[in-house]
């Protein structure tokens, strides 16, 4: 009786690893994902496509240098593992796979780190949701600062949640029972902005038929949020500085100063230091407003939040509509994760509403996304130029510091190519390969 053919060695490898070591990620010599054990897929609720660069799946807390140490020395490290659109805090140890003197790859032994599991420690903070430790660290700073009377400058791109942070600072402060007022300094002409801030007396100008208190007095014993403060004209900046120094306001057309008790929270998408250098903003006012700076990361700097946030928005839409979305197709997932998101979370919310209305069934597909997601890449150079132009020196240096000086990692954090970063550093006089 003929013997049955024995199973091949390759078919035995994953079951053997599964039985002996549990969750294991196999990586080839080019640092591409080769395979995952069933235990890893089961524990983390998803899979990773073979051929995916390891750097897109595993992010050690020490950055690129720590990843190198893991692969070359086998050094155990804490890391973030992205599987199935979710990010998990894990511990990883590498075992080299060799054939004689030739290295074939590594077997990465993965264990869940409950203390660092981002997927299990997602946080909703006064309207801002994240599972990224960096943004959660900013939440803790906001909680500390809220207990003081210090002026706060919130820095971030449009759509990152600057006003939500301002509301949080007010709600967590001793002034929470007082009023919260907000004004956009870029939305009004200078003469009207002065009146809106400081108030005016009847007859101060044409149309001033009655006294108006202005935002400072309306925010008395509370908080005043000055959005886009960098757009305030210079002559009004001088008056603003006097208000902060004397804690009084003089209404337009008035003579007598009126005492005010207000905490200032300012916000801008610009670098105030660069505005000062360009002569568009007063240095003394900057120092008054920027006692405690809070930097909000862009959505492209929070890659692990993109798909979970998108699903949260779809769940909210389901509460008001008939469609129930359960997942994204692989193509839609790639487009969403690869998008630059210049409008940040606000843009993501709008894109999900579009996809919810246009698509059908439980899956969001590529064709459900707005037209710009399927347009030819010919438009990419324009976007790159825009992104590069928005990169101020302070933000570039911060990214380099977070990446431990590794420029490839810094470029990833900034959402730009390494070439774009090199050009920006060259413009700043800090070029040179690294």
What do these coordinates show?
By secondary structure, this protein is of the alpha/beta class. The protein has four domains: 9-120, PAS domain (Beta-Lactamase, 2-Layer Sandwich), CATH 3.30.450; 123-295, Rossmann fold (3-Layer(aba) Sandwich), CATH 3.40.50; 300-375, Helicase, Ruva Protein, domain 3; 384-427, Arc Repressor Mutant, subunit A, CATH 1.10.10. 41% of the residues lie in helices and 19% in strands. The chain has 18 helices and 17 strands. It has helices at residues 9-21, 38-44, 54-57, 64-73, 133-146, 162-171, 190-198, 214-218, 234-246, 272-277, 283-289, 303-318, 330-338, 344-358, 380-389, 393-402, 407-414, 418-427, and strands at 24-28, 33-36, 58-60, 77-83, 86-99, 102-112, 123-125, 128-130, 152-155, 180-184, 222-227, 248-249, 258-259, 262-268, 292-295, 327-328, 363-364. The strands form five sheets. Strands 2-1-6-5-4-3 form a six-stranded antiparallel sheet. A five-stranded parallel sheet has the order 10-11-14-9-15. It has a two-stranded antiparallel ribbon with strand order 7-8. α5 packs across α6 and α12 crosses α14 (344-358). The longest helix is centred in the last third of the chain and has 16 residues, at 303-318. The protein is elongated and about 90 Å long. It starts with 8 loop residues before the first helix and ends in a 7-residue tail after the last helix.
């Amino acid at each position: 009786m003929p013997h049955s053919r024995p199973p091949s060695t390759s078919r035995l490898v994953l079951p053997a690893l599964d039985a002996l070591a549990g969750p294991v990620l196999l990586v080839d010599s080019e640092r591409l994902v080769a395979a995952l054990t069933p235990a890893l897929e089961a524990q983390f609720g998803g899979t990773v496509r073979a051929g995916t660069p390891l750097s897109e799946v595993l992010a050690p807390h020490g950055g690129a240098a720590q990843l190198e140490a893991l692969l070359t020395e086998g050094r155990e490290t804490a890391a973030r593992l992205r599987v199935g659109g979710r990010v998990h805090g894990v511990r990883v140890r590498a075992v080299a796979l060799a054939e004689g003197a030739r290295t074939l790859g590594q077997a990465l032994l993965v264990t869940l780190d409950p203390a660092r599991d981002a997927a299990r420690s997602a946080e909703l903070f006064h309207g801002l949701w994240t599972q990224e430790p960096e943004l959660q660290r900013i939440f803790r700073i906001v909680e500390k600062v809220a207990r003081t009377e210090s002026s706060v400058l919130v820095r971030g791109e449009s759509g990152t949640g600057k006003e939500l942070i301002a509301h949080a600072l007010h709600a967590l402060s001793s002034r929470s029972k007082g009023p919260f007022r907000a004004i956009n300094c870029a939305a009004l002409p200078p003469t009207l902005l002065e009146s809106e801030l400081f108030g005016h007396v009847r007859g101060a100008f044409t149309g001033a038929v009655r006294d108006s208190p202005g935002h400072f007095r309306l925010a008395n014993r509370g908080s005043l949020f000055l959005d886009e403060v960098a757009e305030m004209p210079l002559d009004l900046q001088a008056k603003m500085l006097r208000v902060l120094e004397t804690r009084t306001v003089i209404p337009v057309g008035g003579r007598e100063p009126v005492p005010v008790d207000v905490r200032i929270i300012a916000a801008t998408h610009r670098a105030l230091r660069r505005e000062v250098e360009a002569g568009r903003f007063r240095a003394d006012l900057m120092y008054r407003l920027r006692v405690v700076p809070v930097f909000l990361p862009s959505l492209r700097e929070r890659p692990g939040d993109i798909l979970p946030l998108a699903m949260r928005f779809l769940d909210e839409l389901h509460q008001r509509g008939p469609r129930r979305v359960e997942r994204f197709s692989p193509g839609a997932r790639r487009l969403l994760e690869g998008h630059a998101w210049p409008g940040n979370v606000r843009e993501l919310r709008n894109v999900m509403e579009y996809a919810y209305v246009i698509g059908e069934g439980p899956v969001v597909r590529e064709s459900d996304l707005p037209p710009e997601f399927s347009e030819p890449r010919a438009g990419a150079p324009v976007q790159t130029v825009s992104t590069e132009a928005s990169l101020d020196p302070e933000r570039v240096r911060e990214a380099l510091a977070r990446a431990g000086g590794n420029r490839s990692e810094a470029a990833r954090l900034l959402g730009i190519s390494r070439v774009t970063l090199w050009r920006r550093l060259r413009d700043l006089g800090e070029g040179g390969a690294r």
